[in-house]
């Protein structure tokens, strides 16, 4: 093996082989669309920004997005350095296992699956509610939210089985639509010089503005909005020249997403005026329509048609995110099956070299997570969406922290990369920033899930429990495989 490359799995440059995802299927832009879909820009802005403004640091929210982006960028330096030497669809657990040992790596595999499946289930809840409302208002057909959710699960399963290129094309259309309307709104407002109080640059980005109110709450929601950028490494096996494509896609995704959220939130606040934005966000939340805080100024800018289109784009934004997390989760299942940590049948591929067996299992998991809320008659937004999105963010942040520490340990042991900034300083600073973000999430977890303290406690405890179960299950599976091979 080349002394400069340590890889869990090597892909051929021209043709796929058994147990291998289709190589050379995605370029930088294809991977970027998967990442942007996971972050669901319109969902992130319409869902998180009103709460961050009302309960966080008010007009200083754009600065919180910059802080979150800086932390994620520092994390990405080590993440990319590791990705140059390890290419595997099970990105997180492979990276963590390389530095912190196989046991910790296998535990993190269970945690990664938990994070991706719960965030997808959360999005299904919000999606079903929004689509049900749209159909009822336009056609009069009033069906339960879970009917639309189950129908969409079948569509997502079909698209996932159609291959990664088809998924990338669908996502490109959906992401461009939501990204375009928000970006045009932000740029038009910027060119016009802002709202009634001007651009309010100092009101949003000065140190005093950033530290106003409860900045921890704002940073917490800003970090949560960036969930999903790490998907760049998951598609490494299917990327063209992964050791070049994945780093470029990762850095581009972090910069684009940070700039997008910071600019859009700034222009939203400017459209109300810095002195009025906090009250406007609070009023929208009290009225049960937080998204109205975002939709109202966009409709005022472009006309009434925008108010009709935005709810539809919110639904397609959620669909794009759901499809992306389906693809991420089934690639984790595929990788775990290939490594014999789960049944080997999970790495079965169809004619398009898509992981169809893992995709079927992932869809079943989605049904099992969503249907208890439907059968219990729970509100899909106040329970399913709020609870699962919060616990998924907490689980993912723990994975970020473990990955940062693993990067430092890996390069201290392997000496494959002598650059201190890439393998020690940036990952170390990123780990400190992520640890701070985890502390903020834990301190404000009840706010994040919009639930009661008791609910917050058992959701928080589910994260270490899942990781422990992952370790135990991997050990049991390892003994069973060893016995069968022996």
Automatic annotation (TrEMBL):
Record's GO cellular component terms: membrane
Top-level taxon in the UniProt lineage: Bacteria
Topology term for the membrane: Multi-pass membrane protein
Record-annotated membrane-spanning stretches: 26-51, 63-83, 104-125, 145-164, 171-193, 213-236, 248-269, 312-333, 354-375, 387-411, 423-443, 455-474
Domain Amino acid permease/ SLC12A: 52-445
Compartment list: Membrane
Pfam families for the chain: AA_permease (PF00324)
Protein name: Amino acid transporter
Source lineage: Bacteria, Bacillati, Actinomycetota, Actinomycetes, Kitasatosporales
